[in-house]
């Protein structure tokens, strides 16, 4: 059993839920999961982790794009667990459409949800990690943060910012034995991609050398691998895209 505490944001479904299950399967006892709109799914996951893996799971339902909510989250963490040893910044939303049709509010929502929440959570997690002289911050990013996607400018900008954030923060925290890395996901088989019809899915799969979409469990496996060791690996944007780019 592992007594370290892991925080996974955006864990009510998809990649985040798979990451939470992976850590529970591997014996982590202190797991914190957050969600916003899918509260029922978040609570279902909490019950699953407790019943199937006998871990201590704390759920927190709030919009992490708001700093005051993140402060409340970390106050609860301090009271229950003292601090976070492994932070996985996974919460994210997308917006598809022309930039000229994108409203200021929609832009702000994507940037604050995907990028500002990463800053907020990292800012409040780092003091405990510094005190312990160890820690892991793993940011779930996207290949669009490297290459950009037409009609997904806000999403691409937020993930590009996350990648730069990862590289810069890794240099800042390396002397404290805290590693910061990001996983740049390709096409993962989640609800975020369910807007694609069968023809569009087939066409996209043809572009990917691995000839398929990735499973959320594969992202979880890589996330866990980064979390459990590799003390000299930091500041890296690791593409998980089946050879797409």
Automatic annotation (TrEMBL):
This is SDR family NAD(P)-dependent oxidoreductase. The keyword Oxidoreductase applies. InterPro entries: NAD(P)-bd_dom_sf, Sc_DH/Rdtase_CS, SDR, SDR_fam. Belongs to the short-chain dehydrogenases/reductases (SDR) family. Keywords: Lipid metabolism, Oxidoreductase, Steroid metabolism. GO terms for biological process: monocarboxylic acid metabolic process; steroid metabolic process. The keyword GTP-binding does not apply. SUPFAM superfamilies: NAD(P)-binding Rossmann-fold domains. GO terms for molecular function: oxidoreductase activity. PANTHER family: 3-OXOACYL-(ACYL-CARRIER-PROTEIN) REDUCTASE, 3-OXOACYL-[ACYL-CARRIER-PROTEIN] REDUCTASE FABG.
């Amino acid at each position: 059993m592992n007594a370290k505490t892991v925080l996974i944001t955006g864990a009510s479904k998809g990649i985040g839920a798979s990451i939470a299950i992976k850590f529970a399967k591997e014996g982590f006892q202190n797991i914190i999961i957050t969600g916003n709109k899918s509260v029922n799914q978040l609570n279902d996951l909490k019950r699953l982790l407790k019943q199937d893996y006998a871990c201590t799971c704390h759920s927190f339902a709030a919009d992490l794009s708001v700093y005051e909510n993140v402060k409340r989250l970390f106050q609860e963490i301090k009271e229950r667990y003292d601090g976070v040893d492994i932070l996985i910044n996974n919460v994210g939303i997308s917006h598809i459409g022309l930039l000229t049709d994108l409203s200021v509010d929609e832009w702000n929502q994507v940037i604050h949800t995907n990028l500002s929440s990463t800053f907020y959570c990292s800012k409040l997690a780092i003091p405990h990690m510094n005190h312990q002289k160890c820690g892991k911050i793993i940011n779930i990013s996207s290949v669009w943060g490297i290459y950009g996607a037409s009609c997904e400018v806000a999403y691409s900008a937020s993930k590009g910012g996350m990648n730069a954030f990862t590289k810069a923060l890794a240099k800042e925290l390396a002397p404290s034995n805290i590693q910061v890395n990001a996983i740049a996901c390709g096409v993962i088989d989640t609800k975020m991609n369910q807007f694609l019809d069968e023809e569009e899915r087939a066409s996209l799969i043809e572009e990917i050398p691995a000839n398929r979409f990735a499973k959320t469990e594969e992202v979880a496996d890589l996330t866990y691998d980064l979390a459990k060791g590799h003390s000299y690996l930091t500041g890296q944007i690791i593409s998980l895209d089946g050879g797409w780019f």
